[in-house]
Specification:
Distance between the termini: 39 Å
Structural class: mainly alpha
Strand order of the largest sheet: 1-8-3-6
Number of strands: 8
Strand content: under 5%
Largest sheet: 4 strands, antiparallel
Radius of gyration: 35 Å
């Protein structure tokens, strides 16, 4: 941090300011003692003296400080104090030399200097100092403030005290001589002040470019920040203009009104829309004629819709006649805007007219119309309008239900929360449901807590609910999460720890032993996994099982770090975890050293062997002696047997499926019995399908017996049987779910995702087959899904111009996952082709939970950009 010159000069400036204050105080109080030898006189003088200082500071903060900073910038705020003190000290020194140090004139010179110092130091200088921290990144800002308060100020205080002792006791300096030394401190103080103020505009510009400011934390008191933000309003980049508008939107300025008028002509529609929102929020009626002009002439439906909303807000019922025709406009954006504006601002007559159009939308047979109706209710945002939204939350169309879920979050009516919980269980609605439930804040927590307990048999649903708890935060959430620190399901337990960490949980001193025991339990489980991993052969048959074992080891390690962060410095623990994954050996060594120097001695034998880069045999030897495990699987078959035999609480469905897959590929007939129990005891479709296939490979007779005993109502296994029969016939390329996962592992988007994450992608895959010459989609079709080529080839083309040819394991249409815009090209199969189709709404839910998938999509998009 101190390598940053701006931060160094800022902190050094504060240190010099502290030294100068101690020297000035010593001079002032030394002369005060000589002038008023009586204690009562000193007390009377200081009471009046500091009383007036308080009055001046109060008046200055109310009327002067912000005006000075706004007019003259942080330069004036930072340099006013040292310049004022320097002038005062020089005047005192001259008067002391002429009339005598203890003369009244000299005393009042130093008293006035200290008076000005106190007023400026506690007001203008303090405000300027806080402004200087604003351009720093959040983490660096906190660290800089802590370094200033915890290092630079105490050290400078100690240095000032030591110098005063040396000058008074060794050199015999009095108040006059000490005052003569003060300019030697003030000159570098002013120099460092200039250095800081010279770098401040560059730091502000960098902060604006990096979007490090936000309206909640930015204090627009200095002219430098305001001028830089004003300059961004003239930027040719829309994102810079939008950012500056967000920060300047509440600044009262004739300049801003002029800029808003100019920006209504901006070439980017998003900017024009945002300008109208600012005009509406600030009720700038002077710009109504320009809003009308946009409504008549703008080519963007979104801008015209925003113009309708703005006019409705600014003119109220006077705009009724003007806006009524838009209630029937064929453009959906204008209709939504007109209905919303009429309901909010156009009085009873407006509500009646809008209600008629709204009911036609709500009862339409067209899903897009019902979707617009849900959007209207969300934009109106009136809590009592929940009844029309309730049926839309149960609409047969997923897009309509998704829009209704979003609207329910804006209405915040408790009667809709149970329906939002239903949406939380629906693929494609989960992300929107989480956002809407979070909008309910602490009021929704009692319902969430009750449902969480009722859903103990559905860990996946509990994990989704924990996302809501994590984002609401607060003491009530911490108390709830603490009660579930003993969750038995591994995935739920991991999510509880992650949520506690996100809420910055710190364990009470009395609970430290309980957390320490949980850390030891994780280490014991990791020891068992390492011992089992060592028994697996290095062949292709067990490759997936070894990968799953490694994933579980990483999950154990993640939980260990989370638990450690509850006891020790969380920043240090997360820093260690991140560096442990780094390619640099030095960074990994630093990660281990950080843990070694932080945690208690009794935990080190458990934790450090999991981090050290030791041969597997050496790690196992150290861990076995520490954790006390004496019985471990001796063979790979025994290892698989134990995994398959375990229940859902102790072994995840995915880990069990990998063990079943390995047993079938390795012909471990000793595992047949527990595999048969998996078919009846487990509920997950993937693991049951894999188990049924494994039995067909290991013991065909047992497979036929299992099939004959299947209940007709067990649709999941019935479909698995049909798939296996079609595989045997060989008429189509029929893939097991676990084979689909192996394909996904070869696709760049999913390459970094752990296998257990990819297992969650399988249910959202839709298989589609195309014959040679068949079109997958046309140019300008609205894209809402991406495709993965399983077999075959396709060509990307615009009319007859071929752009490229894609083959197995390549993806196309991935931009539709991020933004459902018209397709930029057509895609046609060159030969018989099988693809996996993934919809946008389904992948959004996975992206919200798993950053690995987001990274994969970004990596593919970056590669496409480079290719272009």
């Amino acid at each position: 941090m101190l390598k940053n010159p701006y931060v160094f000069f800022m902190l050094f400036n504060n240190a010099l300011s502290t030294v100068a204050l101690f020297f000035l105080d010593n001079t002032f109080y030394g002369l005060l003692e000589k002038r008023y030898p009586d204690v009562d006189e000193v007390a009377s003088f200081l009471g009046l003296y500091w009383g007036w200082i308080g009055v001046i500071i109060l008046l200055s903060r109310g009327f002067l400080t912000n005006r000075i900073l706004a007019r003259y910038g942080v330069n004036a705020g930072l340099l006013a104090l040292p310049v004022c003190v320097l002038i005062g000290v020089i005047c005192f020194s001259v008067l002391g030399a002429i009339v005598g140090v203890y003369a009244a004139l000299a005393f009042w010179a130093i008293a006035l200097t200290r008076f000005c110092d106190a007023c400026l130091r506690n007001d203008l200088d303090a405000c300027a100092g806080l402004v200087l921290y604003q351009p720093l990144p959040t983490a660096q800002k906190s660290l800089a403030q802590a370094t200033n308060d915890g290092v630079f100020i105490p050290v400078s205080t100690g240095v000032a005290g030591a110098l005063l002792l040396l000058m008074k006791n060794v050199f015999g300096f009095g108040p006059f001589e000490i005052a003569c030394v003060i300019p030697a401190v003030i000159v570098p103080w002013i120099v460092t002040g200039f250095s800081v103020t010279r770098r401040y505009p560059r730091m502000v510009a960098a902060a604006i470019a990096g979007h490090r400011f936000d309206a909640a934390t930015l204090s627009l008191t200095d002219s430098t920040s305001i001028d830089l933000l004003k300059s961004k309003l003239k930027s040719s980049y829309a994102n810079e203009v939008l950012y500056a508008l967000a920060l300047l939107g509440d600044v009262d300025s004739e300049f801003l009104i002029q800029e808003l008028a100019r920006l209504l002509e901006h070439p980017v529609a998003e900017v024009r829309c945002e300008v109208m929102k600012v005009i509406s929020r600030r009720e700038i009626v002077e710009l109504v004629p320009l809003i009308r002009l946009r409504l008549r002439m703008d080519s963007s439906p979104h801008v015209r819709g925003e113009a309708v909303r703005t006019l409705a807000n600014l003119e109220d019922v006077d705009a009724l006649d003007e806006l009524t025709p838009f209630l029937n406009d064929p453009d959906p954006e204008l209709r939504v805007a007109a209905i919303t504006g009429a309901m909010q601002h156009l009085g009873l007559e407006g509500i009646v007219l809008a209600a008629q159009q709204f009911n036609e939308m709500r009862n339409s047979r067209q899903p897009i119309e019902r979707q617009l109706a849900a959007r209207v209710l969300g934009e109106v945002g009136i809590q009592s309008f929940y009844r029309p939204l309730a049926p839309l939350l149960q609409d047969e169309n997923l897009e309509v239900r998704n829009e209704a879920v979003i609207a329910a979050g804006k209405l915040k009516n408790p009667k809709l929360w149970p329906k939002l919980l239903d949406a939380l269980a629906t693929s494609g609605l989960q992300s929107s449901a989480v956002t809407s439930l979070v909008a309910g804040g602490t009021l929704v927590l009692p319902l969430l807590a009750t449902v969480f307990e009722e859903q103990s048999q559905d860990p996946e649903f509990q994990i989704r609910m924990l996302r809501v708890f994590q984002q609401i935060r607060g003491q009530e959430v911490l108390a709830f999460l603490e009660r579930h620190l003993n969750a038995t399901h591994a995935a739920v337990y991991t999510r509880v720890l992650s949520a506690l960490s996100a809420c910055q949980y710190r364990v009470a001193v009395g609970d430290v032993p309980r957390i320490a025991e949980k850390i030891r339990a994780e280490c014991r489980h990791s020891t068992w996994l390492l011992a089992a991993q060592a028994s697996l052969p290095g062949d292709e048959a067990t490759e997936l099982l070894k990968s799953a074992t490694e994933d579980l080891l990483q999950q154990d390690l993640d939980r260990v770090y989370l638990l450690l962060s509850f006891i020790y410095d969380s920043r240090a623990m997360f820093d260690s975890r991140n560096n442990l994954e780094h390619q640099s050996g030095e960074r990994r060594a630093y990660a281990i050293e950080l843990v070694d120097s932080t945690i208690d001695r009794d935990l080190k034998p458990f934790v450090l062997p999991l981090l050290d880069e030791l041969p597997l045999a050496e790690r196992l030897k150290r861990l076995k002696s520490t954790v006390g495990i004496t019985v471990v699987p001796q063979t790979a078959c025994e290892y698989a047997f134990d995994i398959i035999s375990a229940d859902e609480l102790n072994v995840t469905d995915w880990f069990c499926a990998c063990a079943v897959f390995a047993a079938a590929n390795s012909h471990w007939v000793g595992c047949i019995e527990p595999i048969c129990r998996v078919i009846t005891n487990r509920r997950d479709p993937l693991v049951r399908q894999t188990a049924l296939w494994a039995i067909s490979q290991l013991d065909p007779a047992e497979y036929r017996r299992q099939v004959s005993n299947l209940a007709a109502a067990d649709l999941g296994l019935q479909s698995a049987v049909q798939l296996l029969e079609q595989r045997d016939q060989g008429t189509h390329l029929m893939l097991l779910d676990i084979e689909k996962l192996l394909i996904l592992k070869t696709v760049p988007i999913f390459a970094e995702a752990p296998d257990f994450v990819l297992a969650q992608v399988i249910p959202i895959l839709e298989e589609q087959e195309f014959e040679a010459g068949q079109r997958v989609f046309e140019k300008d079709d609205i894209g809402t899904c991406m495709y993965i080529i399983v077999s075959g080839k396709v060509r990307i083309h615009i009319d007859d111009r071929e752009l490229t040819v894609l083959g197995e394991r390549q993806v196309f249409g991935e931009l539709a996952l991020l933004d459902p815009e018209p397709r930029s090209a057509s895609v046609t199969a060159i030969e018989p082709t099988l693809v996996f189709k993934i919809s946008q709404s389904a992948i959004y839910d996975l992206m919200a939970n798993h950053i690995e998938i987001v990274r994969g999509i970004m990596r593919v998009l970056c590669r496409r950009i480079r290719e272009k």
